[in-house]
Amino acid sequence: MSSLSIEDNNYLIGRIGRQSVRCLIDTGSGYSIIKQSIASKLKLKVKPPDYDQRNELYAANGSVLHISGFAEVVVHFGTHSILHEFTVVTNIDPHVLLGVDFLKENGMILDYSNSIVTFAQGIACAPIFNHSKKVLLIKAKLI
Predict the structure, then answer these.
(1) pLDDT averages per 10-residue partition of the chain, 143 residues
(2) Architecture of 11-108 per CATH?
(3) Bond prior to 48 in cis (omega within 30° of 0)
């Protein structure tokens, strides 16, 4: 069993490369996003948007998020690794946001009534604790 941190019932602590990162689970965002400065720090290869792709998104508060490109990122949660394309933006806080695209593609199920996050078609699950408990356990099923 591996352990990860969680905060305020909405953040998972994952790992990209050797760096631990706070990942906001955001069911209101259609896109998974990583901040440009973090992508640079992690030396991620960022592909600029094509001429026909959008170059900005809008945050929930109405502010404009400037897209600098897209990056294929491997995010590790305990012993489980997920490859996903993130939209890279210059101006966002938190630094990593897991949007609906990430949740759907990885079969993540957020069950707040039972405080469980399940992903990878049930291969891994994670109990959600409140912010006063800083440990999130990931349990993988044996195949």
Answers:
(1) 46 87 88 96 94 85 92 89 95 90 88 70 54 48 43
(2) Beta Barrel (2.40)
(3) no
